[in-house]
Amino acid sequence: MSHHGIHHVTAIAGPARRNIDFYTRVLGLRLVKKTVNFDDPGTYHFYYGNESGAPGSILTFFPWEHAAPGRAGAGSTLETGFRVPEASIGFWAHRFLEKGVEHGAPERRFGRSVLPFKDPDGTNLALVGVPDAEAASAPAGEIPQGAAISGLEGVTLLVTDAVRTGDILTDVLGLKETAREGSLVRYRGDAELGGTVDVRDASGFLPGRLGAGSVHHVAFRAADDAAQETMVQRLAEHHGIRATGQKDRNYFRSVYFREPGGVLFEIATDRPGFMADEPFDRLGRELKLPPFLEPHRNDIERALPALA
């Protein structure tokens, strides 16, 4: 069955060890895949998500040890939100104080409690309290059942052409405009995880700059190759935008395009998923490489920073 929403979000980080420690120990997410950037195999690519690594639960990172700081601005992703049980916001505020995590005060957006915070690289994140999130949560280390992150809630985009960005979200990616609050326009898909995209017009702002703490791209879901091809055709025929050719990322197959507001979008297939090359109980434990990089494993492992 096809669902519409975010497949994953990919960001840029600083030191790899610090990145793993924060997302697994502090936030309690599972490292579901440890691999390399297929286009730059001297760099890790970490995928964090829920227990099964379901589409819509995944935040990924390219950790560069000495990455310069990025900057939020026009044509970038301002914030990435995670779903947590509504009653757990107090638990998380206390935990952030205890762990020294930079965070703001809880606030209300579109009727829900939101706790904004930053990771060690300054990535803008938020926990969104959702009434029905408990059923999808799982205990994770120090995080109890009633507070665990169940996946992504959504992203907030700063764009230079909010109307045309909205057209792509609705006409190509299957979301619908559902609400407006201040300068934010909310779009939602039918996916439970990663179903929300908030768009803010940032025309006149300085452009965003890639670097540590910034988001590289936002990937949206396609059930399979056929669904992806339909979206690509619609993108070209209705909006005059051509996507790249399909790239095999081992766990999904992707095309990329720059949406009219300046943000890099990806369309990623749900299949085959993260158990394509290792079983559920061993997800994320070993460095996995695609077949075309296996002959270079020794050189790649020597070039990557130590994680232990």
TrEMBL record:
<feature type="domain" description="VOC">
    <location>
        <begin position="5"/>
        <end position="130"/>
    </location>
</feature>
<dbReference type="InterPro" id="IPR004360">
    <property type="entry name" value="Glyas_Fos-R_dOase_dom"/>
</dbReference>
<dbReference type="InterPro" id="IPR029068">
    <property type="entry name" value="Glyas_Bleomycin-R_OHBP_Dase"/>
</dbReference>
<keyword id="KW-0223">Dioxygenase</keyword>
<dbReference type="Pfam" id="PF00903">
    <property type="entry name" value="Glyoxalase"/>
</dbReference>
<dbReference type="GO" id="GO:0051213">
    <property type="term" value="F:dioxygenase activity"/>
</dbReference>
<protein>
    <submittedName>
        <fullName>Ring-cleaving dioxygenase</fullName>
    </submittedName>
</protein>
<feature type="domain" description="VOC">
    <location>
        <begin position="151"/>
        <end position="270"/>
    </location>
</feature>
<dbReference type="InterPro" id="IPR037523">
    <property type="entry name" value="VOC_core"/>
</dbReference>
<keyword id="KW-0560">Oxidoreductase</keyword>
<dbReference type="InterPro" id="IPR052537">
    <property type="entry name" value="Extradiol_RC_dioxygenase"/>
</dbReference>
